[in-house]
Amino acid sequence: MDWGMKNRLARILQPASGRTVMLAADHGYFMGVVPKLEVPRATLAPLLSHADALMITRGVARTSVDPETSPPLVLRVSGGVSFMGKDLANEGITTTIKEALRLNAAAVAISIFVGSDYERESLLNLSQLVSEAEEYGMPVLAVTAVGRELEKRRNRYISLACRIAAELGAHLVKTYYCERFEKVVESCPVPIVIAGGPKMDTLRDALLLAKDAMQRGARGVDMGRNIWQSQAPVPMIQAIRAVVHHNASVAEAAGILDGAGARQPELAGKKT
Ligand code: R5P
Hints:
Elements: H1 3-12, E1 20-24, H2 28-31, H3 40-44, E2 53-56, H4 58-64, E3 73-76, E4 78-79, E5 92-93, H5 97-102, E6 107-112, H6 119-135, E7 140-144, H7 155-167, E8 172-175, H8 181-186, E9 192-195, H9 203-215, E10 220-223, H10 225-228, H11 233-246, H12 250-259, H13 264-268
Parallel strand pairs: 1-2, 1-10, 2-3, 3-6, 6-7, 7-8, 8-9, 9-10
Antiparallel strand pairs: 4-5
Helix pairs in contact: 9-11, 11-12
Ribose-5-phosphate (R5P) is lined by residues 24, 26-27, 55, 143, 145, 195-197, 222-226.
């Protein structure tokens, strides 16, 4: 592997643990205004020093994140569709490698839509992006997207999509956690990070997801809504860091939240 490629990957997967806490905040590229991400700068600023990498679009990078204090960028370069359109899978490439280099990105990210009407286009987009990115030592993160079909988040589909992403040359894969996740990891020859998905009922649920994924071989998280839509974003990302980098148990990580008073509203709402 070329020096530049290795160096960029090491900016994401921390050499000490080989793991990463990536903060995902690229949702606006197809969802527009997302609750708690209405003003990206306000949401992201307190979290940046706790993230190993930041997944955003070029627009949010330029308008809402200071270059002097930004974690390494994983730049979203696919898009062109929205929730208002006919098919979320019909994405193209929105941002060139030249621009990713100008933004000093540590990686570029693209979604693939295996099993959709646009499977072929999205897989060829990935292949072409890898070919171009490798010329410049730029890693490619493939996101196994499911669009509106959340029920696709099952082992058989996730295994297939992750393996195809790796076969086409992705250097990292981001996917959803699923049952028998260790089998997904075993059959995917590149590191996998997990998305958090829609906000869960409790902070503990999100910690449990991260813990299970790490125990089954994930190399980290690329989490958004379960951090910045939570009632305590900073303690939450600190708790996630404890799980990812320090093998903290769910109870130990929840202790970080409790220490910050972060779970009080949630616990007050529980009958147990
Ligand atoms: C969605 O397509 C975006 O790429 C997000 O980065 C991804 O879903 C991870 O964020 P969350 O943890 O909110 O699911």
